[in-house]
Amino acid sequence: MISRAQLLAAGLGPGAIDYARLNGELAVVHRSAYLLAGAALTTAAREFAAVLACGDDSALSHASAAYRLDLLPYPTNYATLDVTLPRRASGKHGIRTHFTGCWEPGDTFVLDHLRVTTPRRTLLDLAATESGRPLERALAAALATNRVTRRTLLAHLDRRPYRRGGARALRALLDAGPSLTRSEAEELLRALVRSAGLPDPETNVRIGPYEVDVLWAKERLVVEVDGWRFHGDRKAIERDRARDAPLAAFGYRVMRVGWRQLADEPQVVLDRIAAALSAARGAPS
Q1: Architecture in CATH of 182-282
Q2: What CA–CA distance (Å, rounded) separates 148 from 241?
Q3: pLDDT tens digit string along 46-86?
Q4: 116 forms bridges with which residues in the sheet?
Q5: Residues forming CATH 3.40.960.10 domain(s) in the chain
Q6: Which residues contact 187 (CB under 8 A, 6 or more apart)?
């Protein structure tokens, strides 16, 4: 992807740019953003094109930034991209533009040569435009992978009281903790493990009559994700704990991780898992 401004800065005149378009060397994606001949218009290329078309002071934002940051999975039908810029601008085809009075320090950064809103700013933007599961899932992913912490995000809201409608929703969600399905919780734990370079575990594995959340089979380590917001009710939690003894009898060490610890103390969770894996490798067979 290349913008018209970049082509002009490189020494091409308007006539040369028009000629390159006519002979197929440049394909127009937006009025001022072009795709070089032979290149595929991938999702990443579309994201670059949207930011290039909106100018050097713009950034991929809102849901589009959440996808790019792996806070939310890319949708199957990803037609419209979100871009924020510090000036009023009309939207272009396939681009939903948002206005901000100014970029504050820590609002944007460059990711793989593309300007994107930071996880903190992305969550604030999402809180103003999304509700329910997308916001909960993005917040949970950001917390579990240590992109933000609950403490620093609340402190940021305290220092800069946002008047946008979603700030109150984000604060309430931070206080309550996002509600996650079992599979979402397990995936967040796996993402945390991968970020630390630990071996990738299996999930939802049967050991005798029991199905465990996360398993390192070689090390015989089971990690179960506890909490109201994962397992639903107290009876379910009590049933989960009642099966720890049989699993131990099968030779497995069972480690339980609660949502609050996963969100607020991810490094503590990692240290516990790493220590247990290390101890298992050093134990006599």
Answers
A1: 3-Layer(aba) Sandwich (3.40)
A2: 31
A3: 999 899 888 888 999 999 999 999 999 999 888 899 999 98
A4: 60, 109
A5: 182-282
A6: 203
